[in-house]
Amino acid sequence: MKYLAALPAFIYPLVSLSAIVGIWFAAVRLFVIPDYLLPPPWQVFDLLVNGFVDGALWPHIGATLVETLGGYVVGSALGIGLGVLLAESKMFERFLLPLLTGLQAVPKVALGPIILVWCGYGVASKIVLVVLVCFFPLFINTINGLRRADEDLLDACRAFSASRAFLFLHVKLPSAASEIFGGLQIGISLALIGAVVGEFLSSQRGLGYLVSSASVNMSGATMVEGVLLLAVIGMCGAQMVRTLHRHVVFWESRETRTESRRRRGKMMVWEG
Predict the structure, then answer these.
(1) Which domains does the chain have, with CATH numbers?
(2) Cα 217 to the center of its chain, rounded Å
(3) Residue 6 pLDDT
């Protein structure tokens, strides 16, 4: 176990990936699965390499990234902004919260045809769909995080005549940072789902369109290729948000390290 703990962090997912590919290879060989149901790994790998070399995949990847990132940024900004507004104002909460709750209950796929009619069949409709999907995790997490601020600390700051802006910037916002980044973590996955759903409904480019068109032709390798690329994009996006979380909410990592040191110290005392 000591030797395993000393390995670099990226080794562990590589081992899991190798095991999955090995099981995939063995299943195709042993059960003689047809290519249209489950293509062999080497066929998907060849298709990926050829798609990158001849440039056929780049337009699809670019379209999906533009839709995902554009909607993610706008939806996250709206979610955080409205979350702050409702958390800080009871009046806005009375007016807007019931309407936003009702909108949240509507399946976003049901809104897809309406969005297509309003925004057209281009990139704009996919971005709007991604905005709707990303908005609510940030909105809810922002409200919850701001309202969980330490009341004793707020009262202490008010006792020294701290302004409302000071309380928000120095007490409420730092306490809500983890909740907000939790919403960002959820939102990046939902953004990719929203972009793919939009491409399923109507598109001529994108990884969702690639998978959808391949299903019509029963091209199993192309479908698996598109799904793998979506998985890689999702993992990269989630890792970027986690890295940003560690650097922005730096005090959490310090608390974690301090707690770990305390536990190790207790263990050493117990063993001694």
Answers:
(1) 40-250 (1.10.3720.10)
(2) 30
(3) 57
Whole-angstrom distance, CA of residue 175 vs CA of residue 177: 6
Q: For the chain, give the secondary structure using H, E and C.
A: CHHHHCCCCCHHHHHHHHHHHHHHHHHHHHHCCCCCCCCCHHHHHHHHHHHHHCCCCHHHHHHHHHHHHHHHHHHHHHHHHHHHHHHHCHHHHHHHHHHHHHHHHCCHHHHHHHHHHHHCCCHHHHHHHHHHHHHHHHHHHHHHHHHCCCHHHHHHHHHCCCCHHHHHHHHHHHHHHHHHHHHHHHHHHHHHHHHHHHHHHCCCCCHHHHHHHHHHCCCHHHHHHHHHHHHHHHHHHHHHHHHHHHHHCHHHHHHHHHHHHHHHHHHHHHHC
pLDDT of residue 227: 92
pTM value is: 0.84
* pLDDT in the model for residue 268: 39
**In Å, how far are 62, 196, 206 from 59, measured between CA atoms?**
5, 15, 7
Question: What pLDDT score does 117 carry?
Answer: 86
Low-confidence ranges of the chain (pLDDT < 70): 1-10, 253-272
Residues 6+ apart with CB under 8 A from 42: none
> For residues 161 and 104, is the Cβ–Cβ distance under 8 A?
no
